[in-house]
Amino acid sequence: MEQAVRFDSAGLSLSGVVRLPEGIAPGERRPAVIVLHGFGSNKLSGNVKRPMKMLSDAGYVTLGFDMRGCGESEGEKARLICLEQVEDTSNAITFLQSNPHVDPDRIAVLGSSFGAAVAVYTGGVDPRVAAVISSGGWGDGERKFRGQHVGPEAWAKFTAMLAEGKRVRETTGQSLMVPRYDIVPIPGGLRTHLAPGSVQMFPAETAQSMYDFRADDVIGNIAPRPVLLLHSSVDSVTPTEQSIEMFKRAGQPCDLHLFAETDHFMFDDDSVRVKSVLFDWLDRYFPVQLNEVPA
User: Fold this and answer.
1) For the residues of 133-174, what is the DSSP string, one character each?
2) Distance (Å, rounded) from C-alpha 198 to C-alpha 165?
3) Adjacent-strand bridge partners of 109
4) How confident is the model at residue 295 (pLDDT cuts 50, 70, 90)?
5) Beta bridge partners of 7
6) Within 10 Å of residue 4's Cβ, how many Cβ atoms?
7) Are 52 and 62 in contact (CB under 8 A)?
8) Which of 64, 204, 260, 279 has a CA 20 to 30 Å removed from the CA of 53?
9) From CA 214, how far away is CA 55, in angstroms rounded?
10) Would you say 97 and 104 are in contact if contact means Cβ atoms under 8 Å apart?
């Protein structure tokens, strides 16, 4: 029930996959969930494929896609700018609204890590988002980076890289390329979660974009649409306090769940508890409602 698709975003062709639930009838419209990949990843990641499958099995239409510059999408490779990813997500909503199997007023966005921050921000600026699910997300780029580059020496090295990136861009017109783990450190044991084809080198402008990105500032705009914040209670990639702070700033309804037995890639870990919390929340706030098929 999967279909390869392409759609336009800012003049670029983005590559995606639409997954339809089994048994959907011609003309029947279902709620849909757009699943966003993480930092420099793509639609093949476990944090995209697993949620798409379990949501489709539960009756939702799902869409996973490669952000511009990632995977099979057009755009300058590795150049990830947060607000451009928000634009891509809004254009994914426009595309999905035209699908004959989708209820155009019931499209949710689910993201993990970088994708979670983009999901929250998109919900805060695009009123068409019906619900937001954030897994291991972040709301303040500077504070997130301070939690990832701990101690005066590590922080000085990181900020020096940002400054050098700006200097190189201004003096040469070129980008300083930076290894992914100099931007977002990930313990070696978790690196196997990266999808095949994940970007390994980024322009310093990507790090600066993340530093400046603040989903905290817009999450309050989502209410009264529902928000679900999921985070590992000890997250070795994105500091747990990021979701706690977003919860403080959100309107209602907003639920926050911390999980002791997971780490950053909780959907790829296939946690039974995470699934239980997710589907309890969906049943309450964003249920599948089977519509009468027009005669």
Assistant:
1) EEES--S-HHHHHHHHS-SHHHHHHHHHHHHHHHHHHHHHSS
2) 22
3) 34, 132
4) very low
5) 14
6) 9
7) yes
8) 260
9) 28
10) yes
Tell whether 209 is covered by a domain: no
Mean pLDDT over 207-236 rounds to 97
Q: What is the pLDDT of residues 119-141, one digit of tens each?
A: 999 999 999 999 999 999 999 99
Q: Half-sphere exposure of residue 160, counting CA atoms within 13 Å on the CB side? A: 6
Amino acid present at 196: P
Collect all residues with Cβ–Cβ distance below 8 Å to 157 and sequence separation of at least 6.
149
CB 117 within 8 A of CB 124: no
Residues of the chain with pLDDT > 90, as a percent, come to: 89
- Per the structure, the complete domain to which residue 121 belongs is given by 2-141+214-285
Tokens 């093949």 correspond to: 44
pLDDT (average), residues 110-121: 97
CATH code of 255's domain: 3.40.50.1820
51 belongs to a structural domain:
yes
Query: How many whole angstroms separate alpha carbon 169 and alpha carbon 175?
Result: 5
The pairing of beta strand 227-232 with beta strand 254-259:
parallel
Q: Please check whether residue 201 lies inside any domain of the structure.
A: no
Structural domain includes residue 78? yes
Q: In the chain, how many domains are there?
A: 1
Residue 283's nearest CA partner among 255, 263, 264, 258 is: 255
